[in-house]
Specification:
single chain, about 160 residues, alpha+beta, 7 helices, about 20% strand, elongated
Length: about 160
C-alpha cells in the first residue's frame, strides 16, 4: 500500500514517458492550428491604387505567424496576388495569441513600385538593395559642401550621382 502511494507521488512529480509523449503531440497539434484573420478599418484607396486595412491575427498556441503565410491568406481572402500584398508593423499582444498589424494590397506592380518605400520592397524581394561605400558617400557630401555660386545646383547633382554609383 505504501509502495503504491509512493509510486503515485513520483508520477505526479515526474510524469511517465507516455504522458510526456502525449503532451508533445498536443503541443505539435496546437502549433499547427489554423490562424484566424480579422480585418478592421478597410479602405479602398484609388489615388494610391491599393486596398489598406488593419489586420488582427489570432494564433493560439503559436508564437507568431510568418508574413509570407499572412500574405498568402490575405491574397486569397481578397482575390489578389500574394506578390502585391504587403504586411508590416506587427505587434503581439501581451500573453501572446493575438497580433495586430497593417496590410496593403496593391492593384498592380507599377503602383507598388511607385508608392511603396524602398526598404519594404527589398524585404518583399521586388527590388535589390544598393550597396554604397561609406567613403564614396562622405566624399560626395564634402564635395557638395565646398561648391558656391551659380554652378551649385549642377555640381550638387553631379556629386549626388557620384555617391550613387
Amino acid at each position: 500500500m505504501i509502495h503504491l502511494q509512493y509510486q503515485m507521488i513520483i508520477d505526479v512529480i515526474h510524469p511517465g514517458r507516455a504522458n510526456v509523449e502525449q503532451k508533445k503531440k498536443q503541443l505539435l497539434t496546437m502549433s499547427d492550428s489554423a490562424v484566424i484573420i480579422k480585418t478592421r478599418k478597410f479602405k479602398r484607396n484609388p489615388l494610391l491604387a491599393r486596398k489598406q486595412m488593419i489586420i488582427d491575427v489570432i494564433h493560439p498556441g503559436r508564437a507568431n505567424v510568418a508574413k509570407s503565410e499572412l500574405c498568402e491568406l490575405l491574397a486569397g481572402m481578397y482575390k489578389a496576388n500574394a506578390k502585391l500584398t504587403v504586411v508590416f508593423g506587427f505587434r503581439t499582444k501581451f500573453g501572446g495569441g493575438k497580433s495586430t498589424g497593417f496590410c496593403l494590397i496593391y492593384d498592380n506592380e507599377d503602383s507598388m513600385i511607385k508608392f511603396e518605400p524602398k526598404y519594404r520592397m527589398v524585404r518583399k524581394g521586388v527590388t535589390e538593395k544598393k550597396e554604397y561605400s561609406r567613403k564614396a558617400i562622405k566624399e560626395a557630401k564634402n564635395k557638395k559642401l565646398k561648391i558656391r555660386g551659380t554652378g551649385a545646383r549642377i555640381a550638387k547633382h553631379k556629386a549626388k550621382r557620384a555617391g550613387d554609383d
